[in-house]
Amino acid sequence: MTQTQTIRGMYIGGQWVQTARSFADINPSTGALYAEAPDGARPEARMAIEAAHGAFKAWAAMKYTQRAHLLLKAADIWERRTPDYIAAAQAEGGGWVGKGGFEAHYVAEVFRSAAAACYHNLGEILPSEYGKFSTAVRYPMGVISVISPW
User: Which residues are CB-contacts of 135 (< 8 A; sequence separation ≥ 6)?
Assistant: First the structure.
């Protein structure tokens, strides 16, 4: 029997934030309660967006090598915690060890791919019908908000 997990809240702006409501996160293969999960709503979304806006200027100003190193560090930490993720995925969703392992290793590679993207060209040469040298430069524009079903 799996012990019910405690979820501290939603991690926003460097701190754990409590939500007004929660919901039962049930393992579908056993019917057991995995945890009471925070039920984020508009206030938490607004807080997260504001926190991201607050961090954006420093992140955008950071040297690309520093951003890459942080992303690689996240990949390494995630990879070290792979057994924890696999156990949680099994207890929470009823998945099997192979699926949890695939997901855990995939996440680490996503961080590594993002780190590699930091070294890509930031611009491109555009076609010019007049024989001129024309370029486009890419730069961070800001924060986006995404609602994911997972």
Answer: 123, 124, 125, 126
